[in-house]
Description:
The structure holds 2 protein chains of 2 kinds.
Chain A (H helix, E strand, L loop, with lengths): L4 H10 L6 H18 L34 H5 L5 E2 L2 E2 L7
Antiparallel strand pairs in A: 1-2
Helix pairs in contact in A: 1-2
Chain B lengths: L5 H10 L4 H19 L2 E4 L1 H16 L11 E5 L26 H8 L3 E6 L33 H8 L5 E6 L5 H7 L2 E4 L19 E6 L2 H11 L17 H4 L8 E5 L9 H16 L3 E5 L7 H16 L18 H12 L2 H14 L4 H23 L4 E5 L15 H5 L6 H6 L2 E9 L5 E8 L4 H14 L10
Parallel strand pairs in B: 2-3, 2-4, 7-8, 7-9
Antiparallel strand pairs in B: 1-3, 4-6, 5-6, 5-10, 9-11, 10-11
Helix pairs in contact in B: 2-3, 5-6, 7-16, 10-12, 10-13
Amino acid sequence: xxxxxxxxxxxxxxxxxxxxxxxxxxxxxxxxxxxxxxxxxxxxxxxxxxxxxxxxxxxxxxxxxxxxxxxxxxxxxxxxxxxxxxxxxxxxxxx
Amino acid sequence: xxxxxxxxxxxxxxxxxxxxxxxxxxxxxxxxxxxxxxxxxxxxxxxxxxxxxxxxxxxxxxxxxxxxxxxxxxxxxxxxxxxxxxxxxxxxxxxxxxxxxxxxxxxxxxxxxxxxxxxxxxxxxxxxxxxxxxxxxxxxxxxxxxxxxxxxxxxxxxxxxxxxxxxxxxxxxxxxxxxxxxxxxxxxxxxxxxxxxxxxxxxxxxxxxxxxxxxxxxxxxxxxxxxxxxxxxxxxxxxxxxxxxxxxxxxxxxxxxxxxxxxxxxxxxxxxxxxxxxxxxxxxxxxxxxxxxxxxxxxxxxxxxxxxxxxxxxxxxxxxxxxxxxxxxxxxxxxxxxxxxxxxxxxxxxxxxxxxxxxxxxxxxxxxxxxxxxxxxxxxxxxxxxxxxxxxxxxxxxxxxxxxxxxxxxxxxxxxxxxxxxxxxxxxxxxxxxxxxxxxxxxxxxxxxxxxxxxxxxxxxxxxxxxxxxxxxxxxxxxxxxxx
Lengths: 95, 484
């Protein structure tokens, strides 16, 4: 299969990743090569094989619904790139 | 002193010879003298390390009970959160990130009275096999400074090999503990998935990631695993089963012992010198009365392809959190919220991380999910079934860790696929969740270390360590140290 620069641009949009034009070209070539390699998976016969998402037979675990100490507001916001009062500040989402 | 194992250093301290403070001072000196060349460490907190060591000495003097690693320096891969101390993951995105909490394994180390000596270099977000993907510095192989230490836990492996610390922690998603251990001539253990809590381990691929030790020998690996293993309610995949006293049974040979030798691990692509050293290691076992059994892992030919779908799919989802909002890099200029995400991520991530996010996004995208992602999960089950069948006939599986010894820095950095193929023998253990260890088993003519990989069924670390120890007691590869 061959990947086009437009395909790559679309995937970058889905991934919320800004790529410069030069990066898009390199990425298209490299992703294409990796996808060609990965295509060999199609040769494996997997009729009636249940997908394995996780190596252990694990189940959802619920903790007790009881209050426990948590981070203070200041500790939780300490790494925020931008803070306003007790909130993470972002550009306006709605006008 | 710096060349000793942790177990020997612990015995010395317990006898009252020397102090934790002077021991820590000796390793800090070694870092000062050697790390300008090796570049294994990203951050070293000398004052905190010396203060902790001083405190342990005082408590020992007062006769207070001390933890299992009292006074022993441990280096930590910079993928594990350390409260109040920068944790960068080798990424510009987390350049100024200071976690508000400790990873579970860090709490365990503190409780065991270990001295946290510093954070080690790594491929950005643990994505890579040479540590060249770090945003900060190139780490060098202590045996040959022109070569890679391997990756992604290259800093931790190099730090132990260079005797800048006796113990280190790494993380292994596709071989990131075992491959650098092999390339640096140290021991590296990837525990069974679920054996060690991932709480506070910055996520790469959550169904594959596992924390484990890098050490000079198998005894130290047992010692460190004993400290970090065990259930933690904060990681829902952490398994609640007792942790055996690995150090207590370590010297009991496994008898009778059958070692499976997969024919697929000795095919095209395996370097001749590596094969020779691995075959010599198998002879060591044979001489001790071990039965070697030809086994087959037919689906291992698909392991790399399967891995690069599963791991990147999980990574693309995990790394969505770096959006410039809650923590990490935020682009200075942006138009709106979506633009803020795109620019922050585009500026912050390095090339390999971008590649994997793109690949993972592609294989999960509408129209391709079944052909790539679901298909890879089906093959993943076939790979796991291979191991189940093999382990029905043998106790452990043995083979090479990596197809070649350490390669030269820069040699594979322009060819992502060639780099991916250096993980061909280690990746299946992560896909299957089983335990694996790399132990030193020889050197190339050029003086580069070679590792033997042993793999065991889930939660059979006790047996795995005992089998590894049998080789160690019959050879002296683990006692070699590089000249620096």
